[in-house]
């Protein structure tokens, strides 16, 4: 016996397979809803023979073909109209979405040639044009050069509001591709960082093919390399306590980079020329063109990352970074240890010779002197420093060099982290009484 049903709603029942042709035998069926199931295949032609059917909903299935509803010409026309409108809307939405994706991709591709860097909108840095910086630096006069490297030249300048600044101009002609990468990296890094012992970036200039430059806070005492090695520097200012204070400033900047920001940041090229001193002789770590941000999963900053490009400066490079390209925060710890030795001995990290004429590194020289006793230790010190240290300061000096030597252990795991280094420096500095105020 054929069941008599007026309305049959089997929607949302997770039904699958082909549509049952037997439904065409149901008498007086006026509404059939099979939507939102998992039916597949062709729509049975027998559905077109249901003369009483007024409404048929087969949407949200995986069906093919047309129903050929002879039962209701009115339904066919209405259904086709609805389907046509829906189809048009879907096509329009797809076209709109495709245009949006294409525009974004095209804009991203053009960014390389666009004089406005992609990160500029996210920064609060002032943008200078080439003319601004030419006027500020006397058209990049050689008289205003205060530092130079293969990738950049740094000029002293004065902005239109009278502020003294340092303008770091990239050498585009010789190293354009590498300079672009370093410039992008340095601006992105500096724009995120806020610490008193890191150099402060004030603005930038970016004109494609013409100029890429950073405008930095000017440090009137120059860089540490000049203070250590250039003749004419007054040595009387550089007591053991003053040198420890500079080392503390550098260590504080590195502690922030390694563990005080959202992600560990490795400087990768820490050396005296990248340490700038303000009017109070407080140190500021600078030049982040080679800096690397380690992944957020590296909670202690000690896991390994890698880089294929050669970076860093010979003499300050940790062995695992120089030879294996293994990058951790301990790379900066090694460089810091070398800087401390250089600051105390006034000797370069390489190019030294032993008494027998064999080549010697600064680390080897300090290691041998520590093993030979305090008298030998004073012989390798900066002569001025050796002439003024008291017996008490001599003990601190020895401990300071032992700390520096521990920072340069061959195995990264044997080196202290910068938090430990800073704590040790503060304790050593506290053992030296401050100088007595001079009488007027």
TrEMBL record:
Keyword terms: Glycoprotein, Leucine-rich repeat, Membrane, Repeat, Transmembrane, Transmembrane helix
Gene3D superfamilies, A to Z: Phosphorylase Kinase, domain 1, Ribonuclease Inhibitor, Transferase(Phosphotransferase) domain 1
Domain of life: Eukaryota
Entry's Gene Ontology molecular function annotations: ATP binding; protein kinase activity
Keyword Transmembrane: yes
Transmembrane segments: 80-102
Domain Protein kinase: 140-426
Keyword Nucleus: no
Coiled-coil residue spans: none
Cell location: Membrane
InterPro entries according to UniProt: Kinase-like_dom_sf (IPR011009), Leu-rich_rpt (IPR001611), LRR_dom_sf (IPR032675), Plant_LRR-RLKs (IPR050647), Prot_kinase_dom (IPR000719), Ser/Thr_kinase_AS (IPR008271)
GO cellular component: membrane
Pfam family, one: LRR_8
Protein name: Protein kinase domain-containing protein
Lineage: Eukaryota, Viridiplantae, Streptophyta, Embryophyta, Tracheophyta
